[in-house]
Amino acid sequence: MQDDVVYNQIITFAQSGVEARTVVRSYVEEGKLILVFEDAQKLLIEGRHVDSTGRRDRIHELLASAQDAGITVDPKAVTHYAASRNDDEPVEYVLIKW
Predict the structure, then answer these.
(1) Are 13 and 93 in contact (CB under 8 A)?
(2) Which residues pair with 26 in a beta bridge?
(3) What is the Cα–Cα distance from 68 to 6, expressed in whole angstroms?
(4) Which of 30, 35, 72, 81 fits 43 for a cystine, CB–CB 3.0-4.6 Å?
């Protein structure tokens, strides 16, 4: 069973750099947040790694870093934080909905 969740953009922060991608569909299935991008690629994030209520200071730090990289985010947008590991590299995400 899928539960739709609305996210419009994701900003990824990894050792390799900062990347913003547009999300065309997002939903939760079996405890995982699944984001589908314009090129049909998918990103799966374990639901327990998504924080929708806290981490405001860290989100502000990450958004400042994104702005330094030329990525702008509407200050009124709703933001959530997530973190995971890809190939043993820590990765942080800011999930955005507007």
Answers:
(1) yes
(2) 35
(3) 26
(4) 35
